[in-house]
């Protein structure tokens, strides 16, 4: 019992967190719903005195509402006739319709407002989150949360609003029945309550199934996204059938769950109607036995009970849907909270000012789930205008050094200084603007070359763009295309060669005038010719930009002013390529001779 109570409390809390800010809209909606319910029940009750006008042999209507209507006419100095009563009923229903229309409009408006706002917040929290958190996210999950989960959650709001309207009507019709016969009202209440209570286990089952469904949809989205991204490898390995097989498992599971949800819903709907019918017959017997049989009262009460059962049916259907929708809302809120909790921190206030050196000072770093340090006491410096190469075996920690420079991670110990100041003192926006980053992964938008070079920045002018393209050795190629800078590059740049793509990325980075350029295996995946073109481009930057290039191709770093050799997270050599080549025991000497002989 107490777990049920706390479950309900959690749900309430969930609703409050999600929809709390729409409190005034919900209050107004509730008011309008009750107004509409009240007007409807008065309108229906007015049929009783209407009948008394029509058939003179009826027993006079003695219920409260009929008398109240009569009094209303009296105090309003209106003639109480059949016509005026008819007009009164029509007016009641018109006002009721207007109230209901407003309530429904309000519900829709709140729902779409919630949907838009949540999408905005969720995407913005995601983009603002820190890299360690983002790097752990599965592809496809965000898609799913942003589209499906938010869609389902906003439906929840629609169903809550609809439930408020249903509840208001239930109360109004309940009062109508009380007005005619409190015994019947009591019986209806007991029976209605019993029906809902009996169906409760089915509602809970529905929530369980929906939780499972929300989870499977996310896994499916992840599976589809992952394999679409890697489609070339899937095809080349000829494993389409295996990928499909796994997808089919998800499809099957979803099918089974959908069938179960539908069966649960139908079972409850089918049960309620006959119960209602039996009840109406019982009421007829009850009325018939009464001394004064007022036919109009009987007709109205049967109509009302019928309506109450229809409302209960709708309520149970709403409860089903709400229970089914809750896991989606929980997932949206959980995602939002997590992303918010991992918001990228930026305590920097200073501008980017670089005159002398970028230094690593005894930097120690390890990843979250790793016990071992990835960087041990790493100390080195880059002088302004220098071109430095960072080499070392795979897994040595080179990319980690780059990620620390990009401030995607922070040192666990030690510090990184720019002209003697901790780099975290610099505003993140300034920092990232001044550090150009090119990696092996090429990220191009399915858009024109121009928009790929501008990459969301309005600061990049046409001249900037052309200049950067020239520096990146890609200008002549772009000009040779029929549409020049307006050429669309295709999904992930599929219409260009690897070398062309990489030079466009280089142009993108250079168009932002970075002061430090970090190249993480930027040429590793390219052919020799493309590498030479990029190499030339980078050499053209000598003295203008400080460059740190990671490369396993020694030709890329041979012309560097300085080489830093990293092995197992430690710097083992540092010096100019010529100096290192003099030492026959050096890593550089060994690798250089191995590659060139
Ligand atoms: P390199 O660029 O020299 O090949 P990395 O800096 O990529 O080396 O990786 C250094 C070590 O850190 C490797 O052992 C790698 O497995 C580990 N590593 C890299 N990224 C992560 C991560 N996100 N979480 C845990 N370990 C990581």
From TrEMBL:
Gene Ontology molecular function, alphabetical: ABC-type oligopeptide transporter activity; ATP binding; ATP hydrolysis activity
State the annotated membrane topology for this chain: Multi-pass membrane protein
**UniProt xrefs under InterPro entries:** AAA+_ATPase (IPR003593), ABC1_TM_dom (IPR011527), ABC1_TM_sf (IPR036640), ABC_transporter-like_ATP-bd (IPR003439), ABC_transporter-like_CS (IPR017871), P-loop_NTPase (IPR027417), Type_1_exporter (IPR039421)
Q: Which SMART domains match?
A: AAA
Q: Which UniProt keywords apply?
A: ATP-binding, Membrane, Nucleotide-binding, Transmembrane, Transmembrane helix
Stretches assigned to the ABC transporter domain: 358-593
Where are the bilayer-spanning segments? 26-51, 85-107, 156-176, 182-203, 263-287, 293-312
One Pfam entry name:
ABC_tran
Q: Which residues form the ABC transmembrane type-1 domain?
A: 27-324
| GO cellular component: a single term | plasma membrane
Q: Where in the cell is it found?
A: Cell membrane
In terms of domain of life, where is this protein from?
A: Bacteria
The name this protein goes by in its record: ABC transporter ATP-binding protein
């Amino acid at each position: 019992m107490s777990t049920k109570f706390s479950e309900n409390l959690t749900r309430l809390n969930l609703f409050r967190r999600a929809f709390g800010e729409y409190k005034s809209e919900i209050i107004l909606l509730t008011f309008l719903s009750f107004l509409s319910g009240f007007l409807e029940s008065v309108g229906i009750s007015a049929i009783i005195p209407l009948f008394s006008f029509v058939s003179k042999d009826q027993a006079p209507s003695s219920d409260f509402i009929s008398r109240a209507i009569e009094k209303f006419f009296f105090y309003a100095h209106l003639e109480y006739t059949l016509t005026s009563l008819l007009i009164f009923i029509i007016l009641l229903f018109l006002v009721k319709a207007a109230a209901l229309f407003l309530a429904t409009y309000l519900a829709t408006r709140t729902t779409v407002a919630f949907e838009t706002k949540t999408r905005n917040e969720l995407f913005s929290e995601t983009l603002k989150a820190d890299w360690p958190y983002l790097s752990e996210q599965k592809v496809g999950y965000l898609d799913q949360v942003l589209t499906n989960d938010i869609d389902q959650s906003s439906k929840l709001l629609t169903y809550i609003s609809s439930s408020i309207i249903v509840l208001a009507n239930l109360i109004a019709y309940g009062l109508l029945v009380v007005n005619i016969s409190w015994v019947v009202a009591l019986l209806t209440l007991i029976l209605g309550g019993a029906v809902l209570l009996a169906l409760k286990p089915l509602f809970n089952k529905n929530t369980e199934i929906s939780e499972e469904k929300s989870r499977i949809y996310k896994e499916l989205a992840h599976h589809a996204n992952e394999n679409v991204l890697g489609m070339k490898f899937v095809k080349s390995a000829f494993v389409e059938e295996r990928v499909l097989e796994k997808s089919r498992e998800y499809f099957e599971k979803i099918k089974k769950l959908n069938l179960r949800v539908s069966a649960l819903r139908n079972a409850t709907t089918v049960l309620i109607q006959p119960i209602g019918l039996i009840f109406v017959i019982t009421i007829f017997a009850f009325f018939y036995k009464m001394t004064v049989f007022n036919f109009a009262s009987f007709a109205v009460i049967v109509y009302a009970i019928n309506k109450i059962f229809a409302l209960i049916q709708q309520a149970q259907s709403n409860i089903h849907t709400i229970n089914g929708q809750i896991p989606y809302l929980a997932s949206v809120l959980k995602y939002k909270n997590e992303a918010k909790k991992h918001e990228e921190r930026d305590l920097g206030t200073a501008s980017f000012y670089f005159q002398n050196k970028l230094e690593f000072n005894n930097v120690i770093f390890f990843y979250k789930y790793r016990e071992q340090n990835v960087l041990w006491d790493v100390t080195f410096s880059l002088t302004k205008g220098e071109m430095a190469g960072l080499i070392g075996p795979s897994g040595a920690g080179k990319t980690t050094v780059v990620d620390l420079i990009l401030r995607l991670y922070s040192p666990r110990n030690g510090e990184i200084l720019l002209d003697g100041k901790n780099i975290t003192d610099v505003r993140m926006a300034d920092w990232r603007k001044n550090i150009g980053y090119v990696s092996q992964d090429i990220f191009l938008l399915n858009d024109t070359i121009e928009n790929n070079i501008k990459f969301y920045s309005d600061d990049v002018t046409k001249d900037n763009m052309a200049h950067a393209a020239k520096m990146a050795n890609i200008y002549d190629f772009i000009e040779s295309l029929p549409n020049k800078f307006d050429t669309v590059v295709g999904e992930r740049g599929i219409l260009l060669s690897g070398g062309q793509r990489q030079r466009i990325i280089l142009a993108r980075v250079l168009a932002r005038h970075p002061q430090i350029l970090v190249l993480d295996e930027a040429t590793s995946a390219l052919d020799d010719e493309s590498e030479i073109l990029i190499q030339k481009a980078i050499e053209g930057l000598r003295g203008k930009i400080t460059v740190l290039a990671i490369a396993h191709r020694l030709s890329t770093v041979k012309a560097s002013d300085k080489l830093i050799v990293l092995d197992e997270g430690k710097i083992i050599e540092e010096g100019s390529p010529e100096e290192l080549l003099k030492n026959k025991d050096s890593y550089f000497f060994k690798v250089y001779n191995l590659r060139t002989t």
